[in-house]
Here is the input.
Amino acid sequence: MGEMNMNQTTQPEVSKKLTKKDITKSMWIYYAGAELSNSYERLQSLVFCASMTPILKKLYSTDEELSEALKRHLVFFNTEGILGAIIQGIVISMEEQKSNGENITDDAITGIKTGLMGPVAGMGDAIIWAAVMPIIFSIFLPFASNGSALGGIMPLILYPLLTIIISYYLIHNGYKLGKKSIVSLLHGGKMKNIIFTANVIGLTMMGALSASYVTLSTPLEFSFSGGSTIVLQDVLNLIAPGLLPLAAVFIIYTYLKKKGPHYTKILLTVVVVSIIASLLGIL
Here is the structure.
């Protein structure tokens, strides 16, 4: 009897280990719903918790442990949907360590998520939305303007493809490196340099797009005694070619900066102003 008890107590616990397939499945769930499943109270926490559910079910065997794990991932969370995959990878790594008995508290996991969501959002907005998207659209806008279907189809293929590759790389490397993966990026000013570089690229591309595809001119002419006529557009071109399109872009940018992304209002305002200015012969 004593021998049986000794054998039972000395049996080693089986280490819980996640597979690459488990982590990839989590990435797909978060990628598919990061920008769709927002709630006003907790933003992305719903989809983040949903993406972690298959992972947590594999790591925690009791209902109590699983319930506690789900609760800590329903806490407010919001970051950029593509680069946010690195936070996923880190958290998955921490949950795996916790399930295997390592001294990782609930607060530590929540703290990592809360602490990283801001910096990662800043990087994601600068890289994905201010650089990757403008570059893709700038490449294929000429195709669209020439009537080629590639101009409309290829961005719909390339953008998801590139962002899926980025998410896949980040979640698996975040999992492998754990907290060190993001700490190494934040230290030494690396994040600041990445954001600055991405912003410069993005603004350069947006400037090129504005100059190429925003068309605005004025037919106004001023006649003087003696028969001389001055065409206002010629004067503006002497000052700076494309001055009116540039002014239009800056007016819209100023509105976006002060009032926020009210795109419907902007589009309607542009249409109304264009019609009125055209009828008056101003533009």
In short: Residues 8 and 16 are 19 Å apart (CA to CA). The chain has a mean pLDDT of 80. The longest strand covers residues 221-223.
